[in-house]
Amino acid sequence: MSRKRKVEIFTAGCYLCDDVVKLVEGIVCDSCEVSIYNLNNEGQDKARAYGITSLPTVVVDGKIADCCRQGKVSKSELEAAGIGKPIS
User: Over 80: is that where the pLDDT of 71 sits?
Assistant: First the structure.
């Protein structure tokens, strides 16, 4: 059984969040397992546990992606966090 990179996207269901979901979905690979949480419906406890204070936020293997802490999600930062890179 191969290990998967756990990618969690926390959203509010708005167009800005939808753009980030599309961005992540466009770069993931077979090594990524993606979960999307719309905080209007689910995932509030998980978001609190991670210390999420703004949306959208992407968490990779239990760590908030650096770009999400800085306020602007970027493809290069998500790739630097491991999204889209096969796990060998």
Answer: no
Q: For 21-85, what is the HEC assignment?
A: HHHHHHHCCCCEEEEEEECCCCCHHHHHHHCCCCCCEEEECCEECHHHHHCCCCHHHHHHCCCCC
| Cα gap 9→57, rounded to integer Å | 6
**What is d(CA 3, CA 31) in angstroms, rounded to the nearest whole number?**
7
* Other Cβ atoms within 10 Å of 66 Cβ, number: 13
Residue in the block written with tokens 């978001």: 47
What is the pLDDT, as a whole number, of residue 2?
A: 64
Give the distance between the most distant pair of CA atoms in the chain. 36
Tell me the average pLDDT across 29-58: 95
Domains and CATH numbers, the chain: 5-80 (3.40.30.10)
